[in-house]
UniProtKB/TrEMBL annotation:
Domain of life: Bacteria
SUPFAM superfamilies xref list: YWTD domain
Keywords (A to Z) from UniProt: Signal
Pfam family membership, one: Phytase-like
Keyword Electron transport tagged: no
Name of the protein in question: Glycerophosphoryl diester phosphodiesterase
Signal peptide: 1-23
Domain Phytase-like: 75-367
Organism: Paractinoplanes durhamensis
Transmembrane parts of this sequence: none
Keyword Cell division included in the entry's annotation: no
Amino acid sequence: MKKIYAVAGAAVLTLALGGTAEAGTAAAGGHGRVTTPTLTGWASLPAGTFVLGSEPSGAKITGNTNGYSVPFADQPIQGFSGIVKNRDGSFDVLSDNGYGNQANSADFLLRIQRLTPAFATNTVDVVGGITLSDPDGRVGWPLTRPDRVLTGADFDVESIVRAADGTYWIGDEFGPYLLHFDRAGKLLAAPIPLDGVIAPETAARTGVPATTNSSKGFEGLAATPDGRHLYGLLEGTVNGDVAGQLRLNEFDLRTQQYTGKRAIYQLESPANAIGDAIAVDDNRFLVIERDGGQGATALFKRIYLADKRDRNRDGVLDKTLLVDLMNIANPRRLGGFGETFTFPFQTIEDVVILGDSRIAVLNDNNFPFSTGRSATAADNNEWITIELPQPLLATR
């Protein structure tokens, strides 16, 4: 299987806007008002893309690897689970925790990739990145590696925002924890737990009984435009809560403590999960909600506009369907697809606002396992832009 190598290290490139993400999406979105969500850009990063000169990974992977031999000689660039837009047209994209669980992910290094989609050529360029680490010993329990570089056996990172000071806040699922990193990827403080919510991975380490299922922590993390609060949305229901109801927890960035306030997001089905949650303004969020299907079994992949003001007073966030990702108009047949474009991936975990009526969505390809486009080939990481028929009126 062909491998593609990308730049290694922590380099941050200053990019000319010509041909970058902003220019590409602006051109793609500049065709006038649409009447239904419409595909305006499509790009793809091949599944077998690796960080050149990194280190081996995947030694404990088992099962069908869809033609890829393990272990890999280098770290894969895969599994996108959160995204931040940069001013230069690039994006910081959070790689997932590895290969699905703690047992097989100890040699997967947690990393923020810096990427630039080029929609004119349907490609994605890897222009840099940073590896996450804890050199100051902020984590109070043993880590996998003596050099304190963080791995997929230490944390399951699933969501990311950048604060006004340039530092990163990342949501984890093994705690669940909030993790605060500087611009170079160094952990700045001890992991911050969420009272009353204990994942099985933390339960196994501490002996405190779990209150939620594995991989059901902070799948969504939103920062309000005023820079005051974070909102962490759990992927799964906490034991004792109503089935299909997810807690949205408010965190004060000034005090770096939870405020005790929370709202409730109601899934359309208890079997569904959320893939991401980002802020539109101080009250509204974009939330990806999905089923667990892929390919022919992918039926429910949607983005909702959720409002915590609860205008109908039913105790849950007000929801309005924004985009059905299985039914996107594609009049230009972008990507070689038909006039109706579908995004049939098991996990879709990234949404970012590009403009008042334009968003981008990325999948998590669970490399090398997911097979949403072909039953026999590992999924690529696809990057799409969508023009909306109505403006979001987002706080900029």
